Amino acid sequence: MKRLFLCALLAVATPAVAALKVGAPAPDFSTPATLGGKEFTFHLADALKKGPVVVYFYPAAFTSGCTVEAHDFAAAMPQYQAMGASVIGVSHDSIATLNRFSVSECQSKFPVAADADRHVMKSYDATMLMGMMGDRTSYVVGQDGRIAFAYSDLDPEGHVSKTLKAVAALKR
Length: 172
What we know:
The chain is an alpha+beta fold. The chain has one domain (2-170): 3-Layer(aba) Sandwich (Glutaredoxin). The protein is built from 6 helices and 9 strands; from the N terminus they run αββαβαβαβαββββα.
């Protein structure tokens, strides 16, 4: 019986292929966010006026994979910025938790957003465990407001390199 329960839990936790397809309109959103511990409201439409946006979803701040991913995005920020792109991380964590995560793990290099009601995650089909937490899914949204790239994998490796390549392809 325990084995059956474990198999069922793993089946639910396995990430699905990102559901928003390349070319689909990216759902616009506004949500509380923090950069370097300073709170503000992030609005996707406003960010897109400046260039493409990498919207990446992650399960929970301060967990091992999410910390690795935050460090990787922070290290790559000069490359994104050189191509005119920005990055926003999204999780269901509270803004208080994200204030700390933004400083310590994101190294105050990019903002993270609080999606406490999971509305943004659900609109991007980036949830797991029956919608209880964010899946590790990365999207590149072009300035036209459409999905230019989508990638889901619980392994944090690859999200940064793949999104950098997708942003570079937009510049060609």
